[in-house]
Amino acid sequence: MNTSLVLWGVALYVILGLTVAWISRAGSSSSMSDYFLGNRAMNGVLSALSYSATTYSAFMMVGLAGLTYKGGVGALGFEIVYFAGVSLVAIFGPRFWAVGKRFNFVTPSEMLGHRYNSKWVAVAAGLVSLVFLIPYSSVQLSGVGYLLSGMTGGAIPFGWGIVIATVLAILFSYIAGIRSVMWTDSLQALVMILAAVIVCVLVISELGGFNALFDAVSARNPEMLTVPGPGLFSFKTFLGLTIPWFFFSISNPQVSQRLFMPKSLRALRHMLLIFLCFGLVYTVVSVLWGFSAYVAFPDLEKPDLATATLLASDYVPPLLGVIVMIGILAAAVSTIDSILLTLSSVFARDVWGNLSPSKDATQLKVGKFVIPVISVLALAFASFQISMIAILSVAASVGLIVTVPAIIGAFFWTRGTAVGALLSILGGVAFVITMYLTGNKLWGLNAGVLALPVSVALFVGGSMLTRPDAMRAKEFLSAVQSKRTS
Question: Mind listing the pLDDT tens digit for each residue in 31-71?
Fold first, then answer.
């Protein structure tokens, strides 16, 4: 594909995105809640589009397509498990929203610290987010790097691609905080879903239609259409990938923090319904895209180049290819800037705010200050090109799954204690890191399978050996009940 056309497409996206971000400004944001949560006043449609763009990032059209290219139909099963896990939002979404309204929580870590009446629980959960979300941020940067490099035949190097994505994410984050991110996310979500569907239909038509596409896949390698597939997936591997993915919607703070933002329970429900429709379409499109690339270009060296190679090919008109490229770039940037805002709020509120008690205005300044610091760390991590995007995404989620027992216990087990929460988070992280450093196998199972049961055992064991704060648990849960029934 013509490099100048790609550059013009990126330039137009930057101009349009910055314009929307600037228009979204509504005076200066003077509080943590305003800057990082939009003052809890987001409507359902805006929340849904932003939630979709943040969740369905470079992982989908680059990572999931690459996983399909490598592992066949098992990739669809992997993503459907995540899709099923979104049902957790129906259970936890109203509860997050209710306690967020009542106690003015800014981060999920702050919520856990309050529920267990321990600043150290908030600090531990915050540090876990900082450690494991930086690799996940790098996944998005890598997606942009592979995309721009693949579409231009290397004329735009991988390194320049990740730098472009980093700069854009910082700009969108700084202009108006979550307001600019929400509005640019909404624009980006519409572009990515419309362009992806149109081009997917076009490519499949060029390949002879759906029947011809799957006949070609079957003829080349029948295992691509059978479970567990051509070698990437085994049952144990599949479990290790899908268990962390199932809990993604509550374990990943850049996603669960969005549950504090809708202006009402009705807006929250609208957000979930629209997101589910968006996600189903985008999942099917991404998997079909991976199969199409496999038929058209069966010998790619890197599976994550499947999407870029297909977009740059003669199967896709150049203009449409650039539009899809912009949609994927936008999805990646939307996830990065959301993570930047979440991590900066976590550092300012849960780490800095607890270790060096300070006013809300000071925490806001600290949060803004660390945005570029976190960005540079993610950029450095992305430059190593460690693994396939889908695999690295799940690896990051394995580290975050250790917070799930404390989150579930906060709402459903009054016997849970601060000691139990701390043990499950810190002990769980130590277990995950040890697994990764020693080959990621124990009794033939990997960290993705074992991290959650280990954390549950530590949470239950620690809680049973210590005394719960019954008054705090009662106060917390009464806030849930009163807000949900009001």
Answer: 777 777 777 877 778 778 777 777 776 667 777 888 888 88
Contacts of 251 (CB under 8 A, 6+ apart): 244, 397, 400, 401, 403, 404, 407
State the angle between helix axes of 389-400 and 428-437 in degrees (0 to 180), rounded to the nearest 10. 150
pLDDT tens for each residue of 152-202: 777 888 888 888 888 887 877 777 566 666 676 677 677 777 877 888 888
Region label for 154, one of left (φ > 0), alpha (ψ between -120 and 50) or beta (otherwise) = left
Tokens 């009163």, residue?
Answer: 482
Per residue in 420-451, pLDDT (tens digit) is 999 999 999 999 989 888 888 888 888 888 99
In 3D, which of 159, 153, 185, 186 has the Cα closest to residue 172? 185
- The SS3 assignment for 102 reads helix
Question: By three-state DSSP, how is residue 207 classified?
Answer: coil
Task: Give the DSSP per-residue string, 421-485.
Answer: HHIIIIIHHHHHHHHHHTTS-BTTB-HHHHHHHHHHHHHHHHHHTS---HHHHHHHHHHHHHHHH
Contacts of 284 (CB under 8 A, 6+ apart): none
Residue 306 carries which side chain, given as an amino acid letter? A
* Of the candidates 410, 406, 425, the residue with the CA atom closest to the CA atom of residue 472: 410
Exposed / middle / buried, residue 134 (Cβ in 10 Å: 0-12, 13-18, 19+): buried
Q: What is the DSSP letter of 356?
A: S
DSSP sequence for 3-45? HHHHHHHHHHHHHHHHHHHHHT--S---SHHHHHHGGG-B-HH
* pLDDT score, position 425: 96
Closest CA to 253 of 122, 80, 357: 122
Q: Mind listing the pLDDT tens digit for each residue in 358-370?
A: 788 888 888 888 8
User: What is the pLDDT confidence band of residue 484, given thresholds at 50, 70 and 90?
Assistant: low
Local structure of 262: helix, strand or coil: strand
The more confidently predicted of residues 405 and 374 is 405
Residue type, 325: M
User: Among candidates 115, 112, 108, which has minimal Cα distance to 472?
Assistant: 115
Q: Reply yes or no on whether the pLDDT at 23 is more than 60.
A: yes
**CB proximity list for 58: less than 8 A, separation 6 or greater:** 139, 140, 142, 143, 144, 147, 328, 331, 332, 335, 389
How many CB atoms neighbour CB 14 within 10 A? 17
Structure-token pair, residue 297: 């270009």
In this predicted structure, the answer to whether residue 483 has a pLDDT above a threshold of 80 is no
This prediction has a pTM of 0.84
Q: Is 447 exposed, middle or buried (0-12, 13-18, 19+ CB in 10 A)?
A: buried
- Strand runs (DSSP E) across 294-351, as ranges? none
Question: 407, exposed or middle or buried, with CB in 10 Å at 0-12, 13-18, 19+?
Answer: buried
